[in-house]
Write a structure and sequence with these properties.
The structure is a single chain. The protein is an alpha/beta fold. The chain has an 8-stranded mixed β-sheet, sandwiched between helices. Helix 3 packs across helix 10, helix 4 runs parallel beside helix 5 and helix 6 packs across helix 7. The structure holds zinc ion. The site of zinc ion has 8 residues, from helix 8.
Length: about 250
């Protein structure tokens, strides 16, 4: 650790539960962020400012004017640019020591299996059920921790799948792939700007704990925020042994 790093991360290093060892782990870690929209913007800025060594970000969208109300890593000057190169610039401006791999493509089972295997932690900041299922399946297959969140209208949700905790349910235990909800998007329902910042920051927080070697407190919990009434609901979630993604393989009969 250099003198510049001691100074840059001083307010973390002085935390009683976050010493040099945690910071060194974070500096050597690799976070995979799926989605460079509202959740991803907030998460990426905190991952970068806190010193995550390498970040891979995946998103196939370009920055639009209607994104800027909540996607705080993008700028007016970068409207029209790929979102991944826009956040790459934002990360560089905050912390040039962070290496960013930017992929302007849609996450799918093939590219996820490769990128998840290379990462230390995965943040699902995507905005649709199909991608969430694909990210979860890749994380279960590679035994990588997953921090996912969603935000729509005035409501947000967050949970953590931690493969080092054998009781931890995966995303599909809680939201089975067979029960796909009707797709609703921010474009049709709207989204409260600070809500994505609150959830994305919380994702960065849980990811940093996992990277630093501190267990996430959100494993086995589904945290739901009603930003209208500022109420958090906290549900305990269970691993489902019949889960088609993380469950026990079915016995075969012949
Ligand atoms: Zn499962």
């Amino acid at each position: 650790v250099t003198d510049e790093q001691l100074l840059r991360y001083a307010r973390h290093l002085m935390l009683p539960d976050w010493g040099m060892q945690c910071q060194e782990r974070v500096l050597a870690s690799h976070a995979l962020v799926i989605g460079a929209g509202g959740l991803g913007n907030a998460a990426l800025l905190y991952l970068a400012s806190a010193g995550v060594g390498t970040i891979t970000v995946v998103d196939d969208d370009v920055v639009e004017l209607s994104n800027l109300q909540r996607q705080i890593a993008h700028t007016t000057a970068r409207v029209g640019q790929p979102k991944v190169t826009s956040v790459q610039q934002a990360v560089h401006d905050i912390n040039p020591a962070v290496t960013v791999h930017a992929h302007a493509t849609r996450a799918n089972a093939d590219n996820l299996s490769q990128w998840v295997a290379q990462s230390t932690v995965v943040l699902d900041c995507s905005d649709n059920f199909t991608t969430r299922q694909a990210v979860n399946a890749a994380c279960v297959a590679a035994a990588k921790p997953l921090v996912w969140a969603s935000a729509l209208g005035m409501h947000g949700q967050l949970s953590v799948y931690d493969p080092s905790d054998e009781k931890s349910p995966c995303y599909a235990c809680v939201f089975p792939p067979s029960a796909a909800p009707p797709e609703v998007a921010c474009a049709t329902l709207g989204v409260w700007a600070p809500l994505v910042g609150m959830l994305g920051s919380a994702q960065a927080g849980e990811a940093l704990k996992l990277l630093g070697g501190v267990p996430s407190a959100a494993s086995g919990r589904l945290l739901m925020l009603d930003a209208q009434h500022m109420q958090w609901q906290d549900l305990r979630t269970q691993r489902v042994h019949a889960c088609t993604v993380c469950g026990m393989p079915q016995a075969s009969f012949s």
